[in-house]
């Protein structure tokens, strides 16, 4: 995964940052934790502007979040519950999971969106309850943009500051990310199989 991301960014430049950060929100196995630090590293080498990669990374991230917001808005809770009842076992989702997510979101509102944008594993889907609960678009966009901006700045700055050691980081990061993806795949298959056996 690391090699794919680094090759893509080297080939596409700053706009590749926006595209990958958008895809990271739509397809979670693409990790922002690899995209933005490598973009920061390229910035430290003078191949990209730091301000540009942060702005484009934020725009890509917010665009992906808005897509999920519209999914939540379109689906509505009743339709989503029917979908989970029929296909949730393949997504390892249950209506109890939805109940917990909605209860948490209703307690914290805009704060859930803001902080959720900086939590791996949560940042991608935090927009769905925002859409389901009809959170107004302006507060949603402000919370999403601010949280996404802080996240991209932190990750890009880490890559920028690690520039002298990035090759060494890459040597151990690539096998770790591959192992993590395999672990996530195994976890998904286990949960999906358990859901099928229960139905």
TrEMBL record:
Entry's localization field: Cell membrane
Organism per entry: Puniceibacterium sediminis
Listed GO CC annotations: plasma membrane
Signal peptide feature range: none
Protein name: Membrane protein DedA, SNARE-associated domain
Pfam families: VTT_dom
Topology within the bilayer: Multi-pass membrane protein
Top-level taxonomic group: Bacteria
């Amino acid at each position: 995964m690391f090699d794919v991301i680094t090759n893509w960014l080297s080939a596409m430049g700053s706009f590749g940052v926006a595209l990958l950060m958008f895809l990271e929100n739509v397809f979670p196995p693409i990790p922002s934790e690899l995209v933005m630090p490598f973009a920061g590293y390229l910035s430290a080498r003078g191949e990209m502007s730091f301000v540009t990669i942060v702005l484009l990374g934020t725009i890509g991230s917010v665009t992906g979040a808005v897509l999920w917001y519209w999914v939540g808005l379109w689906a509505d809770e009743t339709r989503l519950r029917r979908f989970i009842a029929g296909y949730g076992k393949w997504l390892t989702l249950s209506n109890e999971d939805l109940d917990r997510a909605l209860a948490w979101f209703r307690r914290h509102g805009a704060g859930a969106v803001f902080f959720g944008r900086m939590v791996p594993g949560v940042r991608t889907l935090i927009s769905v309850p925002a859409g389901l609960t009809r959170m107004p678009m302006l507060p949603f966009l402000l919370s999403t943009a601010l949280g996404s901006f802080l996240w991209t700045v932190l990750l890009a700055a880490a890559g920028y500051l690690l520039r002298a050691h990035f090759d060494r980081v890459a040597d151990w990061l690539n096998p770790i990310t591959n192992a993590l993806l395999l672990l996530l795949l195994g976890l998904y298959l286990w949960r999906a199989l358990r859901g099928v056996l229960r139905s």
